[in-house]
Amino acid sequence: MLKIFKLILYTTATLLVFNTLAQKQLVINPGEKWADMDGNHIQAHGGGVIKIGKTYYWYGEQRSKEFDIDTVHHYVSCYASKDLINWKFKGNAIKLARPDTALEGKHWVLERPKVYYNKKTKKYVMYMHIDGVVKGKRYGFASVGVAISNKPEGPFKYLNAFRPLGKESRDIGQFIDDDGSAYLIFESRPSKGFYIAKLSDDFLTVEKEVSFIQAPLEGGAIVHYKGLYYVIGSALTSWAPNPNKVATATSLAGPWSTFSDIAPPETNTYSSQSTMLLKVEGKKQTTVLYMGDRWKPSAQWDSRYLWMPVEIQEGKVWIPKPKPWHINVKTGEVRYIEQINK
Ligand code: GAL
């Protein structure tokens, strides 16, 4: 009897280990379907990643078929990972019904959500681009929505929507400096450029303009690396990819250099659009990751992610030709695994 019990135990344990191993992914395959730990294509588009303790959280637009057909609500997904490669779906962090009475008609959008953790208040604060028809004009609301939660995975409670610094705001980006100060990057059509603005101490509002970059760019992202601020953005071509660009400054307030390409322009940033630059500071090296979206406007649930470690030095950011890669988040080292899945 004991022998049989031991055998069952052994078989179950082996199966469990095998299963875990089978599901564990070793590489990020840029532009391919990216399965979460339950085997579903990750739904975190136009997203952002933050690190809390040893855990990375990835928030983004939830666009799975099931939720994308819901015209009443929009959802922000939350995933967690210890290695940036294997992500566990933690659920939808917010389910939001049309958040403002100024929005006309049924159709409204929630895009590019970003979450900040405020150490003082111990709250998670979500910013999202809220838009829709106002006075008959598409994308006429041009505001940010703010929501708050006690836990990273939510549920987030919606607070309000406003125009940061009183300005029209469309694509938003997130930047947290090494000293913990938090910034919102937002594109403003009337002044043809984007703003870098400091959040208030509690992160619940946008307090002050730090810089205005006069360049018709969106999908703004910033990284502070070896004494330089690098800002990247994409041209205003809706869902279609274009050659994304980079500029630098020694201070967030500028002055900013002129913009240059971050990939061979004919590849249109390898068919992607910027959403974030993520700095991974390991024991051996610091690696900066470009996070981009490869949108599929007629089937957004199948939109892909193009994440690649970038070459970054002396004012240049360059995305190498996409290929499968692995990162060791403890050391910061990246390895490429060529010819995988071929
Ligand atoms: C893109 C923008 C997306 C979405 C889209 C709609 O340029 O980055 O977030 O707003 O336009 O056309």
Automatic annotation (TrEMBL):
Where are the annotated coiled coils located?
none
Q: Which Pfam families match?
A: Glyco_hydro_43
Transmembrane residue ranges = none
Query: Which residue positions does the secretion signal occupy?
Result: 1-22
- What domain of life does the UniProt record list for this protein's source? Bacteria
Entry-linked InterPro entries:
Glyco_hydro_43, Glyco_hydro_beta-prop_sf
Q: Which UniProt keywords apply?
A: Glycosidase, Hydrolase, Signal
What's the family?
Answer: Belongs to the glycosyl hydrolase 43 family.
What name appears for this protein in its UniProt entry?
A: Family 43 glycosylhydrolase
